[in-house]
Structure formats: structure tokens, C-alpha cells
Specification:
Elements (H helix, E strand, L loop, with lengths): L3 E4 L4 H11 L5 E4 H4 L12 H16 L3 E10 L20 H11 L9 E11 L5 E13 L15 E3 L4 E2 H12 L1 H18 L6
Parallel strand pairs: 1-2, 1-3
Antiparallel strand pairs: 3-4, 4-5, 5-6, 6-7
Length: about 210
């Protein structure tokens, strides 16, 4: 039974997280770099689910393969949900984690701890080869933004994102704990039963 998904990303961190989540369930996860192909998708959606659908459908049509589109980011209460869908390019350049974290700290300067609530959001969508979205899910992880970086693991805003129950940031907790608690994990846990049903029906052999 074929259980292979192309993840519509070139982000090695995301690919590894998804492979760690799906691999033990018998799934093979490939990235756009593995395919050495794909298209540049203009993320014009105003929400994470809209962008996840765009990534999934456009890459699936280009590759003619089952594709998982995933869009994730940080929503901060004191910033009315920003950076939101602009999380990866909050400071301008796409994927500049240091600049994004610096800008977030600057915008939250003077905001007391009790008003620095935030959540990570992950939206995932799966498209078949014809560009039809056949499964979707959203996952959340709630926390608080610190006033300074802590820890060296993870990526993105992880050094600033405190998990209240643990009293540590994602960057301090490391990959194994993050794999249990993260927004991406929670989205995949909701998506997996749908994927398994599709695989059992033989859809991935189409």
C-alpha cells in the first residue's frame, strides 16, 4: 500500500518534523528539494488554511503527486494576531529568524507578561494529483512570549515561545518534547485518521 506524501516545502526543519511524525506510521515524506522540482507558490491567503490549500493544490498539479501543504506561524494577542501569516517574513526577508525575533521583541517592549499570550498555529491540507483538497486539519499550541531568547534548539520563534506548563521555551525543551506538544503535531494527529482512511481505500495508488 503506497503511503507517500510530498511536503510542499524546502524547509528542512519542517520536513524533519513531519517525517518524525508520519514515518513511524509507515509514511514516506519527501520535500520539494527531494523532488528537485515544484513551483513558487504566491501565498496570497489571508489565513493559514487558505495558504495551506494553495501550497497543496498548486504543487500537486505541478508534480502530479499527492501533496501536503502546510502553513504555520505565530499569533500574538497584544499584536492583534500578528505576525500571523507573515510570520516567516515578519521583518522583511523570508526565513530570517534572528531579524523576526528582534522585531517581535521590539514590538512587545514594555508589554507586561500577562499580556504577552501567544499561540503557534499549523494548518495542513492534502491534495490529490488532480489538485483536489481531500483532507484538512488545524492544530494549536499556546504559550507566552518572553522578553529575551532562551535555548538553542528549534527554529523560528522557538527561543521566545514559553510553554507555561514546563516553564521553558520550545528552544529549551528540544525536539523530542516539541514533537509531543507542538502545533504541527496536533494538526498531524487530526489529519492522520483521514490519511489512513484514504490509503486504506487505495487512493494513493491512483
Amino acid at each position: 500500500m503506497s503511503k507517500t506524501l510530498v511536503v510542499a516545502t524546502r524547509n528542512k526543519h519542517k520536513k524533519k518534523e513531519l517525517q518524525d511524525l508520519l514515518g513511524p506510521r509507515g509514511w514516506t515524506v519527501r520535500s520539494l528539494d527531494d523532488e528537485r522540482s515544484g513551483v513558487d507558490v504566491d501565498e496570497t491567503g489571508s489565513t493559514f488554511p487558505e495558504n495551506a490549500r494553495l501550497k497543496a493544490t498548486e504543487q500537486a498539479l505541478a508534480l502530479k503527486k499527492w501533496t501536503l501543504g502546510e502553513d504555520s506561524g505565530l499569533e500574538v494577542e497584544a499584536l492583534n494576531g500578528a505576525p500571523g501569516v507573515y510570520s516567516a517574513r515578519f521583518a522583511g526577508a523570508h526565513g530570517n529568524d534572528e531579524a523576526n525575533n528582534d522585531l517581535l521583541l521590539a514590538k512587545l517592549e514594555g508589554i507586561p507578561p500577562e499580556k504577552r499570550g501567544a499561540r503557534y498555529v499549523c494548518a495542513a491540507a492534502v491534495s490529490d494529483r488532480q489538485g483536489n483538497v481531500v483532507a484538512e486539519a488545524v492544530g494549536f499550541c499556546r504559550g507566552r512570549i518572553l522578553t529575551e531568547r532562551r535555548g538553542s534548539a528549534g527554529f523560528g520563534y522557538d527561543p521566545l515561545f514559553l510553554i507555561r506548563e514546563y516553564g521553558r521555551t520550545f528552544a529549551e525543551l528540544g525536539d523530542e518534547v516539541k514533537a509531543v506538544l507542538s502545533h504541527r503535531t496536533r494538526a498531524m494527529e487530526r489529519l492522520l485518521p483521514m490519511l489512513e482512511k484514504l490509503a486504506a481505500e487505495g487512493r494513493f495508488a491512483d
